[in-house]
Design goal:
Chain lengths: 80, 382, 298
């Protein structure tokens, strides 16, 4: 059974798909070093950094953009 | 109700006006053009409260139609021939996305060679798109069928778009008296469309037109098959309801003197008017002959056809289209589904007149068993 | 640290992202960043339309969608026309405040979707169209498009003994859109989110059709490591290879000026698609860039 025309009626249901399993490197944030610039939030392709700069490892694919764009070197990419 | 002399194009435009579509994306093409003109004028004169989208192609006409229908409003569009071919890809999307709008197709031949005259190749070429296709015989039927098409398409058991097919020039550009119903009974017959399965609304976000991988695609297509099967009953019900309110009776097919007929002509569209005259002439001469007019080509009304032809011996199927290498599309469908001796005749392509003599020739050939299963009628010799 | 954004807090961070995680975009995907920023800037009262392409495929594999706003996709070449239908249907229902935003990749915009988009812009539908330009057909595996830049090797403009890759410069799509006389046209980059978000909001507030051409580096197609997506966008702008401007009611303005334009080589060198280029060809590209910058006053 599929919905008529394969319409998807649950917005944001991609959250069922835990893309964290794709990751080979894991970003670790040192909140001591964080200067609260929000770069990691703004540039995350996977909407996986929240307002408090907590990283959601359920979805983080480990691309490393957050670490690369962090002006205070507060994020380190660590091998899983 | 008023009675006016008009073309089938005007009749279709009047039906569209009465159906109160809210978005009309349409692109002109011969011989559909006057439909697009009438509708533009109706919107300009506030006779319809609709957005007339002046698209730059038929491809965009159908694309805008899908977008508008998926936003939950009633939509009308119309085209012909090359325009329908340009829509081809999106016809499939419209059906697959289950957007139940109505398209009038002024049947015209397909290039090459370039030809603007009537045959039914354009809509026949779209038969696998998942659209309902209903062929009409005259202007009144064009009006009535356009109204019914909305009710059929929007039925929750169907939710597939409908194509009303009317013969180019023969119907689109000739005038005849047509009864235009009043708005009130039309509103009673056809209440406003309320989309429930798919609509774009920020208060209830849905994603429409998604990717379906091999785990889901087969089911989605099977649902369309079920919807098409359901539409048989829905068409019949809708025709009955229409008859109750407006007094004109239609069905999936229209048998004429078939009960005791030994040979039955099978055809679609305006050609049926000519055939009916020939049937009467032959009957006067004692020939047992009848006509089965196919109105619904998709869904293909197998039971209704079976019932109408059950007593006959032979079928003479006349197609204004060709599936090269096998025969006419109606003929091949009849051969596949109806267990009678059937012979195919290709006629009238590109506007070649199908004369009474041509129909008599079809009859004679069928009676004496044609040399070939499929015969081209009216070919010039030399 | 090559960090050239001025100051902290470039854009407002919403409580809820309108592009949900779990989508199937590549790690480091620039298109996801673009769409997330655009939707967050517009808010929930938005309907999104997408052409076939990476974005549509990665966000809507049934039965899951990454979209938190209403979304429709019909085909590759018709998002302009689909958006026209959506916009018309919303407006006739009196829903004048709903943002209509259409997305298309460079293929769906500058190539196969150009006619449909041109029609939509010409008719002046009250909508915003964003081309997320990753400079080739990335969804199908890096085939050239009309937006592929000179010298880039792709699978259909490959380098070889008789070829240095794409031999024509990029089609100037924003100026084609500007020639439609629409009230708002802008270029943008995902590396400059403040600039981009400001433009998205301006486009949405514009009465009539608005077009934003967003350069979106693609880790897979351009050949750089996934953490450098933003850096590539920044290098494009810092070298003048991609110029940020807007044309508002006919008035042209550069919206970001690099302090000192870097040599184009710094942008080309880290990308696999340009790695084969000779010094001579790089010089030719530098001349293209210089001419473009001179023309636009950068």
């Amino acid at each position: 059974m599929v919905n008529i025309g394969c319409v998807i009626t649950t917005p944001g249901s991609s959250k069922n798909n835990k893309t964290g399993s794709w990751r080979t490197f894991k970003p670790i944030l040192d909140k001591e070093k964080c200067i609260d610039c929000d770069n990691c939030i703004v540039f995350c392709p996977d909407s996986s950094v929240n307002k408090q700069h907590d990283i959601d490892y359920d979805y983080c694919k480990g691309c490393g953009i957050c670490a690369h764009e962090c002006p205070s070197d507060a994020i380190e990419m660590v091998k899983e | 109700m008023i009675r006016e002399v008009m073309t089938a194009n005007k009749a279709v435009a009047e039906a569209a006006r009465l159906a109160k579509p809210q978005v009309i994306p349409v692109y002109p093409i011969t011989p559909q053009t006057t439909i697009s003109e009438y509708l533009a004028q109706y919107v300009a004169d506030e006779k319809i409260d609709a957005k007339y989208v002046k698209v730059e192609s038929e491809h965009s006409a159908i694309s805008a139609a899908v977008g508008a229908s998926a936003t939950g409003v009633r939509v009308f569009t119309a085209t012909s021939s090359q325009g329908l071919m340009l829509m081809h890809e999106i016809l499939f999307a419209a059906a697959g996305m289950r957007t139940p709008f109505v398209l009038a197709d002024a049947n015209r031949a397909i290039s090459a060679p370039l030809n603007i005259w009537n045959d039914q190749q354009d809509s026949i070429a779209q038969r696998d798109a998942g659209w309902l296709q209903i062929y009409v015989e005259n202007a009144q039927e064009a009006l009535d069928t356009t109204l019914m098409a909305y009710k059929i398409s929007e039925n929750p058991k169907v939710l597939l778009p409908s194509m009303v097919c009317l013969d180019g020039f023969i119907l689109t550009h000739t005038v005849e008296p047509v009864e235009i119903p009043d708005q009130e009974p039309v509103d009673e017959f056809l209440p406003p469309y309320k989309a429930e399965h798919a609509f774009l609304d920020p208060k209830n976000p849905m994603s429409i037109g998604n990717l379906a991988d091999p785990d889901y695609y087969l089911e989605a297509r099977h649902d369309m098959q079920v919807a098409m099967e359901n539409s048989i009953e829905v068409i019949q019900q809708t025709c009955d309801e229409f008859a109750e309110i407006f007094g004109r009776k239609y069905g999936l097919v229209e048998p004429y003197k078939t009960e005791d007929a030994e040979i039955i002509f099978v055809a679609m569209g305006s050609l049926c008017s000519t055939i009916r005259v020939i049937v009467d002439q032959l009957r006067e001469k004692g020939e047992k002959v009848g006509l089965l007019k196919i109105r619904a080509y998709r869904p293909f009304p197998v039971e209704a056809i079976d019932e109408a032809v059950k007593n006959c011996e032979k079928l003479a199927v006349i197609d204004k289209n060709v599936t090269f290498g096998i025969g006419g599309a109606l003929y091949t469908d009849i051969k596949a589904k109806i267990h009678k001796d059937a012979y195919g005749f290709i006629a009238g392509l590109g506007g070649r007149d199908i004369t009474p003599e041509a129909i008599l020739e079809v009859y004679e050939k069928t009676k004496n068993v044609p040399e070939k299963e499929v015969t081209w009628i009216g070919l010039k010799e030399d | 640290m090559d960090w050239t954004q001025g100051g902290l807090k470039m854009v407002d961070i919403p409580d809820k992202n309108l592009l949900a995680p779990g989508h199937r975009g590549c790690a480091g995907c620039g298109a996801s960043i673009a769409v997330k920023l655009a939707l967050n800037a517009l808010g929930e009262n938005t309907v999104a339309i997408s052409a076939t392409g990476c974005l549509e495929v990665m966000t809507t594999p049934y039965p899951e969608t990454a979209w938190e706003v209403p979304f429709i996709h019909v085909a590759f070449e018709n998002s302009g026309a689909v958006a026209s239908g959506v916009e018309s249907a919303l407006r006739i229902q009196g829903k004048d405040d709903v943002n209509v935003i259409a997305f298309g990749g460079d293929g769906g915009t500058v190539d196969i979707g150009l006619q449909s988009l041109s029609g939509a812009m010409e008719r002046g539908h009250n909508m915003t169209y964003i081309c997320y330009d990753n400079e080739a057909y990335m969804n199908t595996g890096i085939q050239r498009s009309g937006a592929t830049p000179f010298g880039a090797t792709t699978t259909t403009s490959p380098m070889g003994s008789a070829s240095f890759g794409e031999d024509k410069p990029k089609k100037n799509m924003p100026m084609i859109m500007a020639a439609h006389g629409i009230p708002y046209v802008a270029t943008a980059s995902i590396a400059y989110p403040e600039d981009f978000v400001k433009k998205v909001k301006k486009a949405a507030e514009t009465k009539g059709a608005a077009y934003i051409h967003l350069q979106q580096p693609c880790t897979t197609g351009w050949g750089f490591s996934s953490d450098r997506t933003i850096e590539m966008g920044r290098l494009a702008v810092e070298t003048g290879s991609w110029i940020l401007y807007e044309i508002e009611n006919g008035k042209f303005d550069i919206t970001y000026r690099p302090e000192e334009r870097k040599p184009v080589k710094e942008y080309l060198a880290p990308q696999k698609r340009f790695r084969h280029l000779s010094d001579e060809l790089i010089e030719k590209i530098q001349k293209y860039v210089d001419a473009e910058c001179a023309e636009l006053g950068l």
